[in-house]
Each structure stands twice: as C-alpha cells, then as structure tokens.
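Title: Prediction job returns without error message
Component: structure pipeline
Severity: low
Priority: P3
Assignee: unassigned

Description:
Job completed but the reporter wants confirmation the result is attached to the right record. Sequence as submitted:
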Amino acid sequence: MTKRGRRGSSQVDWAMSLAIFLLYLAWFFVFVRPMIEPERKVISMAEIVEEGFAGDAEWTVTKVPVILASEHDSLYTPVIIELPYDWEEGTFAVTDRYYDYDNGRLMFLANLSENRSSTVYIVHSSQNYTQPYSDTDISATPRQTTNRYLDATFYDNMLYSLAYDGNEIIDDMELLQNNEEAEVVNSSFSQTKINSKNRLISGNFNHTTYIFSMNRRIVNLVDPKPYEEFDLTIQAELYGYTGYFADNLNFGDINFSYDRCETFHADYLDFYTSTHGLAFVFDSNATCTFCYDNSSVIDINLTIPVGNATEYWIVPHQGSYSNNSITDMGYFSAGFGLVSEEHGLGTGQLDNISRMGFSELRERWEFPYRRDFQLNISNSTSHIWGYQYGTPGYSDNVYVKETNTWLLDKYADQQYVTLRISTW
C-alpha cells in the first residue's frame, strides 16, 4: 500500500513539472518574440524604402554619338544629318552646342580637324532641354540675310543676288523646273542663332536656302514630293571671273574678248580670279553650261536631276581654285555610332521626391505606419541630396543600408555616389 502511494505521487509531480515547463515555453515566446521580431522588420523596411525609391528616382537617358571625320581643318562647319528618331523637339539636345531642327534634319556647327575624327553626342530623355548660349553674326529678314562674309538678297524666298566681301558676285538668280520657271505656291522665312532659312514652296518640291553664322557656305536643300522626278536648273549671272575649274578634263581661262559657251558634267565647278572665287558643289553630277562674251558677264545654267532629297552648295572663297578647292569646301563625313542607354538616379526625379510629403511617400512606397526613414546621397567630398522626416529617438533601433550607385543628369553626365537609407 505504501509503495503504491509513492509511485502515484511521483507521476503527479512529473505531470505538474511538464505542465510548468510547457507554460514556461509559451510565456518565453510571448515575451521574447517581440524582442526579436522588430530587427527583422527594420531590415525589411529598408528594403521597402530602397525598392520604392528606385522606382521613383531611377531613369534612363539615351545617348547617340555622331562621328565626324574630315581631311582638312574646318571651323564652324555646318553639319546637317537626318535624325532617324521620332523625338519631339525639346526632348533632345546636342551636347555643348546650339542646334536647329528643321523638317527632320538636325543642324549644328562643328570645328573639324585634319585627318582626325571627333564625336558629338545627341541626348534624349523625358525632360525638356533648353538651347545653350550661342554667338551669332547673322542679321536676317525675308528679303536679306547678312553675316561677316555675305550679303544675300531674296525674292519669293529664293536667292536672287549675292555679295561677298562687299563685291557683287551673283545676280538675277532663278530656278527652272524642266526648263520652265518654277511655280511659287508659297514661301516662308525663319531664323535661329546659327542660320537663316528661306523656303520656296512649289507645286511638287520645296527649296530651302540656309545661310549659317560665321560661314561662307550657302546650303540649298531640294525636297521633292513622293514619286516626283524632274530637272532643276539654276540660272544666274556672275561677274568678272577669269578662269574655271571642274576637274582635270574641264578647266581653263575665260577670255571675254570673244563669245564662247562650255558644257560638261561635273559635281564641282569653281569660277575664280587671282584673289577670290565662287564654287558650286553638288551631291551628284550636274550638267554645267556657261556662256560669256565681251561684257564680263558669265551666264550659268546648272542642271541637276531631282528624284530624292538633293543638296547643293554655293561657296564664295578667297584665292583661286588651287588655293581653295576641297580644303575650303570642308568636305567631311558624318555618321551615327552605337546608341547607348544610360541608367542612374535622376536629378529631376530627386526634386520630385523632395516635393512629396512624408505621408504621400509612405503610402506610395507601402511603408509601415509608426515607422520612419531618412534618405541621403553623397559623393566622396560632400552631401548632395537628402530626404528626412523626424529624428530617431535614443532607444530606437536604427538600421542603415548603404549602396553605391550613379547620379545621372539629362545630358548623360554621371557621378558616382553613395545612397544611405536609415529606418527605425
């Protein structure tokens, strides 16, 4: 009887001990778990901020290189290229220079070096771009454009006469389409810091004359309507030139003591004296005819076939063709390089975040209530940007996460920075 009672008592003690142990474990998790859980939440809160911040602060800038190559030194060379992107004007820029955008063509001035290539970058982003300051020597109206070299007059926005260094060199210029006077339906004029634009609008083509700042070269672009083909003839009177040069087969003196006409095919024709000249440059062979007599006047008829966009230049110059020739023409090539997409934190995006209230950001980034955070961006020498709401208390457990990244402006210039996220 006595032994049986002791066995029963020990079983009761064991059961009570087990119950007390289980109760202890339960209370352990009740009291200890809240002390462990906040650390995991603080870490995850930093990740929440990082993800939300990246979504609002990161952006992309497209960068397109334009590679220029020249065989000669050439200052203020007009570069005209077709822009193969459907970008709205104002959403792109040519870095470090003023540009003009006209009928899908991008135009800017470049200084080219002999036998060396140079690269100019076009940048595009979601931000707007403003033009940089640019010196100009152009004074223009629909009837007259002047720069330091040229004085050009226009009729119906078509070049009519031209003076170079104070001497009239072209007069009575007109356009013929298939040997008939070109029809003038409309015309327009505009001016930028780097050029003037006189546009003649005919029935089936547009003819635009560009005179550029600090330039002798006059660029003419002919844009036919789709499927239109015709001959365009430039007629004009030239004064006082004593020689001509087109190529090694077509050159010679001009003797005004008797009547004579010359006809040949060439993509370049230069009339000259011992001190100055006037060159016509075509993007394909033109039929060149000119006649002269004892009046010191040269009548020219230069006919070019037009079926696609066509370009020709009129270039007054110093020296004869042998001193000028290709050098003063500034022949060069221009082509696009590989397009790159630059990624980083945008300065404009950071400004947008700065304007947002903390409650708005908390809701936008799904950040927990009753929790706070700070954001700071700095480079190796200074603080650049910050967003702060509140200050952590003495007993707050602050978690800090640092990430190295890039700050990217709208011109694709990058700066290596550190992003510091503090949460508590």
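Comment from assignee: result matches the submitted record. The chain has four helices and 29 strands.
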